[in-house]
Amino acid sequence: MTTTQPPATAARPTPVAAPTAGQPYEYRRTPLVEPDWTRFPGWRHVTRDQWESAQWQRVNCVKNIKQLRAVLGDTVGDNFYADLTTDQHALATMSMLVPPQMLNTMVPFDPMSTEAFLADPIRRYMIPVASDRRTDWPSHPYASRDSLHEHDMWVAEGLTHRYPTKVLAELLATCPQYCGHCTRMDLVGNSTPAVDKLKLTLKPVDRYDAHITYLKAHPGVRDVVVSGGDVANVPWRNLESYLMRLLEIETIRDIRLATKALMGLPQHWLQPDVVEGLERVARTAARRGVNLAIHTHVNHAQSLTPLVAKAAQTALDIGVRDVRNQGVLMRGVNATTPDLLDLCFALQGEAGILPYYFYMCDMIPNAEHWRVPVWHAQQLQHDIMGYLPGYATPRIVCDVPFVGKRWVHMLTEYDRERGISYWTKNYRTSIEQTDLEALDKRYAYYDPIDTLPESGQRWWTDHRVDG
């Protein structure tokens, strides 16, 4: 009998792993950490109770170079202070005001040095120095103090009616912290050698009355952004009264509180009287069916700490519907894909803050070193897609003068050589009610000149105009 043998089989080859290209961005969860403030020579003996006190934070804000030296000691060299002095005396559009909370997030974990401090992204926009700024084109020729023309659109002192259904209410002209790139640098903060600030002239009670009177007379307005300055600088009793008056107006359906202090001074929003007052407002808003939200302003993941997360979560726990972030794109701070994604994951995943908008830095004086061109913003929007949850993927917008916020891909024409983009709009601002051609016009926005090709830079040099 013949036995059939199974066919011979070749040995199975050892699998060889295919090479992987990897992802352009690799997510790694990074829990929030409160940096050790006692690493600074001037804060070696500051206790946790002091650090978590809003009063201590406000009293110990850094307002000048002498105070900065007292905190940093000899960890930063004299050349840095000379650089800062030059900027403060000739170029800065905002006076110095940095809460300890914010200073503590600069060079948070590495040894402090002049080089490390200069390179720090938060230092670059909170404590700018002269060597940061461009010398060829420090300002765009079309830069202006009120680049968005908010003051031109005041319908009452501090009340800007720019969009058909929304207004901006500037309750005051101060903040707990002053950002170098502030879009309201013509009004907010103390005057500097470079900028003599405008002043609010009405008493607060009269200003607030004027706002309420206008809103009652204009039922088409349903959305009020309550800002300044920063609402954290409004005495709580006054802010709560204003918000309750807004809630009495039947046509108001959205109220947004604008406060960078949720990040810069979270201790304020954790004070018992503020928490209790905000809860009263939130309950009233919920009862009336009004959406109450907080909008804060975080530009880099380093700024997010457990105290910031605690302040955000507390607001949500007591009934605020959303806490959202509106950042600003800035070169040297966050205008790269990894920086933006790191920030958005820290906001959404660790701090409970929804990434909402990133604005292109506005065309104010001495800001060209921060601004990015439209094409760069478009590329960033492309590159961050697909990583974050859809609801937490921020829109990158260009705030076009006389137009308003537009997604960066919404331009109608773009001259890349000269860095001029053209935009259209679909509504009239409060100063265009009689302009029959407002909706047919094209409105220009300008890229930083140093980002243009050589031919474009040469064109601007040949056609140089005064801003």
From TrEMBL:
Residues 1-21 have a biased composition (Low complexity). GO terms for molecular function: 4 iron, 4 sulfur cluster binding. The keyword 4Fe-4S applies. Residues 1-23 are annotated as: Disordered. Keywords: 4Fe-4S, Iron, Iron-sulfur, Metal-binding. InterPro entries: Aldolase_TIM, Lys_aminomutase/Glu_NH3_mut, rSAM_sf. This is L-lysine 2,3-aminomutase. It comes from Micromonospora pallida.
